[in-house]
Amino acid sequence: MLQGDFERLCTELKHSPGNQLSRAIFDVLELKRAENSQGLGAHKEKLPVIWIETNDSGDNNISFMNTTYPYLDGVFQDMIDLLYSNTFMAAQGLDALEALQNAAKGYAGEFVLVVEGAIPVRDNGLYSIIAYAGHEPLTALKVVSLLGALAKYVVAVGTCASFGGPSAAKPNVASNVPVSDIVRRDVIKVSGCPVNPDWFVGTLAHLQLFGVPRLDEVGRPAMFYEFTVHRHCQRRSYFDRNEFAEKLGDIECMFSQGCVGPKTGSDCPYRLWVNHVSWPVKANTPCIGCTNPDFPDGSSPFFVPMPQKSQRRTNL
Amino acid sequence: MSRKFVMFSPVTRLSGLLSVEVTMEEDVVAEANVKGTLFRGFEWIMQGRHIRDAIYMTQRVCGICSMAHGACASYLLDDLYDNEISENGQLLRNIMYASDFLQNHIRHFYLFSMPDFVRMPDRPLFQGQDLSDLRLNPRDNETLVGHYFEAIKAAQESHQILTLFGGKAPHQHSFVEGGVAVAPTADKINQAMALIDNIRCFVRDRMVPDTDLLARVYRDYFSIGVTPARLISFGLFRFGPKTKPFCGKEVCWTKADLAWWTQARSMRRSPGPGFGYRESNSTTRIWVILIAITRVLKPLVGRPG
Ligand code: SF4
Are A176 and A160 contacting, i.e. CB atoms less than 8 angstroms apart? Predict the structure, then answer.
């Protein structure tokens, strides 16, 4: 609606009885909404998504379910068509495998491959089997390599998929590796243990509206991971004055309790978790650096200050 | 007798990867072996780590029940260090644990189980649904589909309670060895009460009637595939400064219980048809948890720190 039209509408209807003016404006809004079909912009098409779960705890899909504004049903309705997902899909068994096959064929070159979890490479990938086709194991290794070559974008969700994470923690008996070691292409790494739903849904929104977001030097969307936790932490004034917590539960800086905020890229201090109500330091505990490439081994022991953390393990 | 082998894979709608190998004799399932097909080797991961790391590391075993693993680690450390847990700490721990349970039950019932019984809308996510034994009339079906989407918010709100006290969820931070690192201040209690009210309405008006309906319409399912009673429970919530498990006599692990257990196992009772779902279904448990949280939250009001 042009400014002139709006002014004319207001002049003509300003003394009319009932709610005629409001109704006229509302009609224009409705028209606009219908034109934009999805609410945000006419160029906003739903993303076809194939979500493969491999070696992780399934915490990332649980965290994804905690998204608010949009809630999960809003994401399914306006943002993505989830064509395959071990957690959410109604189909089981052969029907599920058929859905996977149809999605990979029908949407080749268009779909977003979301991988949740690390990929074990030992013994030809036998330590993570997506499904069996008859007796033949479809290993994560095989499925992710195949789909990775067909996808438009590859998104690693969570720290296991991004960097190996807890699945690849020492001694890593199944030789778990990140998705980027398996697919020979760029991977958007939305790390976190689990991922914050805002980081993941926000990345999907960016793909949907503008394509690939700007990534930081380790491949994570810069809009979420560019600055350190320490930089934006509410307790920074305590750190700067050398006032450190004596124990968990204190209100001072958690550096003394093992906080790795100074080396952790994430916006937790103002993003917060689960409808934006809290984060680990607000809960009077240290940040354990769950978005980092070296998590968890690089953060452990978790409750020991950074300079004394050691990656040496004693009785292996 | 002709034997047939069927590989049912993947089993979807659960946390993790699962397949079932089924052996059929004529039309009857003679044997079904379930295998979880992801392996990370957590036993090895834990070895050689600092013992307090267990509180956070073990939660990474599973995303939908992370709190349970962290709680166990904390209980063990309490034992080891002979910690005394303050009364507020005991109450808060149980509230946090219960919130995670609410989240788990609601998600399991609606997001994971319901597509086995209800015709879901024609969206990519629900395509390929097994329609062979859907029994609800169209009106009930529509109602339950609506509740599927309402459950999303109720489960999120359950995790919001855990986050209020625990910093984040899954993999909360403040339920640790020695107690809880967050004080139950009036604002947090008040917020948790408001959230619990929403969840209670959902459970009362949606989840309980829905469970009743499905249990009635699919009554015969209670006697299909009854397994030998190979279950162990060590109780759930813990009470007292020394975090003793609270359990009925059937769940404690004493010598007498061991005897009872062995006997029960050797009997391998398979409950016949009509096995009362009321005693065994999850709504009973969810009610207990709801009542427990509300009871526990109320007295907390007015004694912060
Ligand atoms: S609590 Fe952690 S992130 Fe915050 S100021 Fe201290 S060291 Fe930095």
Answer: yes
- In angstroms, the CA B55 to CA B74 distance is 6
Neighbours of B193 (CB within 10 A): 16
CB neighbour list of residue A8: distance below 8 Å, 6 or more residues apart: none
Query: Pseudo-torsion of CA A231, A234, A237, A239, nearest 10°?
Result: -70
CA distances to B15, B98, B99, B203, B305 from B183, in Å? 32, 18, 17, 28, 5
> Which of chain B's residues have a Cβ under 8 Å away from the Cβ of A71?
152-153, 156
Residue A225 Cα to ligand 1 midpoint, Å, equals 16
pTM, whole model, 2 decimals? 0.89
Q: What is the pLDDT of residues B69-128, one digit of tens each?
A: 999 999 999 999 999 999 889 999 999 999 999 999 999 999 999 999 999 999 999 999
Subunit contact A301:B14, Cβ cutoff 8 A:
no
Phi, psi of A176 (to 5 degrees): -75, 135
Residue A307 to residue A302: CA distance in whole angstroms: 12
Task: Say what the ipTM of the complex is.
Answer: 0.92
Interatomic CA distance for residues B190 and A19, integer angstroms: 40
DSSP codes of every residue in A12-42:
HHTT-STTHHHHHHHHHHHHHHHHTSSSS-T
Q: Is A82 in the pocket of ligand 1 (CB under 6 A)?
A: no
B305 pLDDT above the threshold of 50? no
Residue among A240, A69, A88 at smallest CA distance from B126: A88
Tens digits of residue pLDDT in A243-301 = 999 999 999 999 999 999 999 999 999 999 999 999 999 999 999 999 999 999 999 99
Whether chain A has a CB inside 8 Å of the CB on B32: the answer is no
Residues of B in contact with A76 (CB under 8 A): 123, 125
Q: Which residues contact A164 (CB under 8 A, 6 or more apart)?
A: A118, A172, A176, A177, A178
